[in-house]
Design the sequence.
């Protein structure tokens, strides 16, 4: 499959050519590193004291996953299931984003410097690796001009969607997986089906452990692209000749990937505490039609007040190319198509169809435009009830469009169009969406009660702690305390709640955290609203029953609590907890209510 004509043979000696290529590689990598550090610079100032403002909850979750993965290695624990959060029922990490490969590879760094530093290092390296992986694929296989490869790769790595997901998503910023998987899929047609199938199978296992939803999107995109390409008249014979080898290679891939993933796949679909489909509304989490023409918040245009805030939240600006870039992309397709040979047109057609399919699918089950929901049905309505689709967010399907836009930009630069209008068009389209730094906020410090190890005086080894309010996505401190205790050799305690996806949602779907009982539900509402409801003997008896169900050893309320979405009403919490459990005792900088003993 040829996208670009091969470069003419170099007349210079091979060694200088390799040196020139190496310098170009280092230059692109250096630019990517500078941009990545710039985007994440708010965290580099103080990795342990700062958090991503719009998504500190997901940051806390990934930090916990990194620390748990490191602990699973050293303690021989199950990396895909734990009772340490969501006690006593436990938590199925296989249906969550467990990022197992990252947790294992970076375990030494986690133990040495802590999970917040590991999180920041991985986030930064994800952006750099995405840029380099795309540059490598483009410069070695798809275009002849290194400038074209650099522009395409840097756009993809720092596109609005990637910067948006840099708000704490270690899975979605692992965009380096996409060009590597695509490259290995295309290699299957070359006839070495056994070797290439094994390599692709290992890569699939790695991708599944880092971003299972992303791997699903890659597979869908390859299916649409290769299916469209194979049906073109100019490439039909080539596709037919390659089909037997490709099928054999995919068979080997399936065997190898299944051998490596048999247990996590079983846990995902059949294991304890599983669920079928997330509890997120597909209509809410669909891409706004106008979002493709809007500017992202963390961009130069956003700083100028041109953003439209059409995404459900700042982490999900999955398209947001801006009108100038959309027009430039269409013009690039038209220019390339006009002068393309039949084989090249087959590739362009496949790119165009893939972009169109995923654009429409990203709009979800019904049209939404400028935040106005309509009843106009769309194809995703047929897919939403299906397995796997019901666990994905349709708006993220727009992520497939970004690499296609980058490819078209690279191909256009490689074609060297004449005229001054093209450089101006690139500037008008790309300058407004240049990324700016992510917003960060000071996170509440881990209490001395935890850092000093004083918690071991009120919770026995392997005991159960209940933080007030109970740990959830909006109040994630408990999991940070837990991660600190593990990575500093203090031991472990269980949490009765936690930020994770588990069963209990409507129609058998998932929900964040366990199904609430009276005590945790009431304290959560007090933390959010500051209103203490009437509490008498009946409520006190229910609290005692709830704590017995959870087997709680101690209830702990810190002086400073991090609210990921809203400020926590500390004084109201202290009043409510005292009315439920008694006066409590002071230990360092926390209030403690001993339940056992």
Sequence:
């Amino acid at each position: 499959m040829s996208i670009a004509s091969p470069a003419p043979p170099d007349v210079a000696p091979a060694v200088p050519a390799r040196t020139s290529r190496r310098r170009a590689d280092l230059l692109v990598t250096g630019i990517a590193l500078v941009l990545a550090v710039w985007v994440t610079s708010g965290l580099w100032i103080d990795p342990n004291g700062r958090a991503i403002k719009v998504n500190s909850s997901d940051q806390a979750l990934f930090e916990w996953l990194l620390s748990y993965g490191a602990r699973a290695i050293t303690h021989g624990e199950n990396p895909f299931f734990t009772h340490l959060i969501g006690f006593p029922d436990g938590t199925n990490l296989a249906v969550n984003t467990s990022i197992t490969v990252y947790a294992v590879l970076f375990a030494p760094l986690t133990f040495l410097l802590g999970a917040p530093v590991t999180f920041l290092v991985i986030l930064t390296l994800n952006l750099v690796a995405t840029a380099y992986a795309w540059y490598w694929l483009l410069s070695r296989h798809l275009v002849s001009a290194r400038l074209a490869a650099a522009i395409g790769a840097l756009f993809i790595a720092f596109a609005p969607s990637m910067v948006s997901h840099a708000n704490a998503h270690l899975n979605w910023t692992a965009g380096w997986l996409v060009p590597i998987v695509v490259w290995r899929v295309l290699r299957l047609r070359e006839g070495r089906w056994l070797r290439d199938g094994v390599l692709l199978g290992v890569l699939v296992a790695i991708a599944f452990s880092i971003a299972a939803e992303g791997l699903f999107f890659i597979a869908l995109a390859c299916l649409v692209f290769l299916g469209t390409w194979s049906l073109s008249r100019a490439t039909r014979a080539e596709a037919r000749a390659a089909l037997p080898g490709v099928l054999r290679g995919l068979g080997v891939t399936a065997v190898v990937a299944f051998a490596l993933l048999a247990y996590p796949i079983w846990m995902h679909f059949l294991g304890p505490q599983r669920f079928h489909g997330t509890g997120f509304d597909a209509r809410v989490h669909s891409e706004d039609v106008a979002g493709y023409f809007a500017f992202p918040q963390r961009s130069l245009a956003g700083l100028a007040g041109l953003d439209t805030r059409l995404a459900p939240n700042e982490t999900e600006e999955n398209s947001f190319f801006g009108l100038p870039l959309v027009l430039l992309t269409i013009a690039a397709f038209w220019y390339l198509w006009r002068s393309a040979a039949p084989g090249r047109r087959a590739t362009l057609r496949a790119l165009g169809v893939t972009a169109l399919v995923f654009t429409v699918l990203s709009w979800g089950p019904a049209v939404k435009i400028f935040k106005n929901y309509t009843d106009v049905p769309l194809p995703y309505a047929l897919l939403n009830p299906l397995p796997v689709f019901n666990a994905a967010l349709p708006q993220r399907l727009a992520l497939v469009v970004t690499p296609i836009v980058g490819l078209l930009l690279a191909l256009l630069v490689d074609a060297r169009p004449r005229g001054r209008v093209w450089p101006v068009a690139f500037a008008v389209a790309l300058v407004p969406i240049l990324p700016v730094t992510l917003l960060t906020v000071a996170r509440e410090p881990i209490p001395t009660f935890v850092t000093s190890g004083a918690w071991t005086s009120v919770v026995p080894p392997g005991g159960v702690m209940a933080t007030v309010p109970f740990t959830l996505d909006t109040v994630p401190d408990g999991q940070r305390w837990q991660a600190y205790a593990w990575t500093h050799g203090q031991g472990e305690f269980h949490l009765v709640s936690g930020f994770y996806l588990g069963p209990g949602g409507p129609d058998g779907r998932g929900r964040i955290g366990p199904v609430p009982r009276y005590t945790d539900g009431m304290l959560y509402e007090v933390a959010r609203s500051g209103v203490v409801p009437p509490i008498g003997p009946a409520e006190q008896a229910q609290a005692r029953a709830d704590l017995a169900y959870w087997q709680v050893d101690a209830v702990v309320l810190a002086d400073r609590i991090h609210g990921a979405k809203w400020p926590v009403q500390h004084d109201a919490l202290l009043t409510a907890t005292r009315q439920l459990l008694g006066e409590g005792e002071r230990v360092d900088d926390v209030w403690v209510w001993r339940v056992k003993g």
About this structure: Residues 2-13 have pLDDT under 50 and may be disordered. The longest strand covers residues 372-377.
